[in-house]
């Protein structure tokens, strides 16, 4: 299922990120802030359990998160920019890494790194990647996690194209997609339009 998180704060910050005149420092900080806001929504359905506590005035029954184990898995390298924001909200989450790059001739993803926590299959896994373009990298990453025994996976992206969303819905209909904006289309180079350029280059200043 697709969840478009078009909260005014997210939309405002994303518009500034899209501007070609926004520098690396501001781009990175805005991505971090948007990721925190999105993490708040992604974790909305975490289960709660009752706990007895005592306030300065009296005893009461409160609620805490019911032992839900989390993991965030950025698709390298751009996904790192969203993982940090998620970890600010859920600092106890473990972190895995999937290294994929897009072959510029075939536009297909190529794996170069894969490292997960030992108990990854027991966790709710949030895969992060700012751009959902062709859907190839996200779909491959989710497939690897499923092969690793993961049963609860969510995908957190910043901007997506209809083409990539369709691929994910077709190949992984059980994975919820959380996204800040759905853009128009992919151009002939498989870049999202209007998009925001190459997210990795803009995060790390490697333009």
Report a brief summary of the structure:
The chain is α/β, with parallel strands linked by helices. It has helices spanning 8-18, 24-42, 80-89, 136-147, 162-171, 199-204, and strands at residues 2-4, 48-54, 59-65, 70-76, 94-95, 97-102, 109-115, 124-128, 131-132, 152-160, 176-182, 185-186, 192-193. Helix 1 runs antiparallel to helix 2 (24-42).
Molecular structure report:
The protein has 207 residues and is α/β, with parallel strands linked by helices. The strands form 3 sheets. Strands 1, 4, 5, 6, 7, 8, 9, 10 and 11 form a 9-stranded mixed sheet that branches. Strands 2-3 form a two-stranded antiparallel sheet. It is globular.
Question: What's the helix and strand layout?
Answer:
Elements lengths: L1 E3 L3 H11 L5 H19 L5 E7 L4 E7 L4 E7 L3 H10 L4 E2 L1 E6 L6 E7 L8 E5 L2 E2 L3 H12 L4 E9 L1 H10 L4 E7 L2 E2 L5 E2 L5 H6 L3
Parallel strand pairs: 1-11, 4-5, 4-6, 4-8, 8-10, 9-10, 10-11
Antiparallel strand pairs: 2-3, 6-7, 12-13
Helix pairs in contact: 1-2, 2-3
């Amino acid at each position: 299922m697709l969840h478009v998180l078009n909260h005014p704060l997210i939309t405002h910050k994303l518009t500034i990120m899209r501007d070609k005149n926004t520098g690396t420092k501001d781009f990175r900080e805005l991505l971090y802030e948007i990721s925190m806001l999105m993490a708040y929504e992604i974790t909305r359905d975490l289960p709660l359990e009752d706990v007895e506590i005592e306030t300065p005035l009296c005893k009461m029954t409160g609620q805490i998160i019911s032992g839900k184990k989390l993991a965030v898995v950025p698709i390298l390298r751009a996904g790192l920019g969203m993982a940090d924001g998620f970890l600010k909200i859920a600092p106890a989450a473990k972190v895995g890494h999937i290294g994929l790059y897009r072959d510029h001739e075939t536009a297909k993803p190529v794996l170069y790194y894969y490292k997960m926590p030992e108990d990854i299959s027991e966790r709710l896994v949030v895969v992060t990647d700012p751009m959902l373009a062709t859907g190839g990298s996200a779909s491959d990453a989710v497939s690897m996690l499923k092969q690793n025994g993961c049963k609860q996976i969510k995908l957190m992206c910043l901007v997506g194209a209809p083409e990539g969303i369709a691929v994910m819905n077709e190949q992984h209909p059980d994975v919820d997609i959380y996204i800040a904006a759905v853009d128009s289309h992919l151009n002939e180079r498989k870049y999202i339009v209007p998009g925001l350029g190459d997210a990795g280059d803009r995060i790390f200043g490697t333009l």
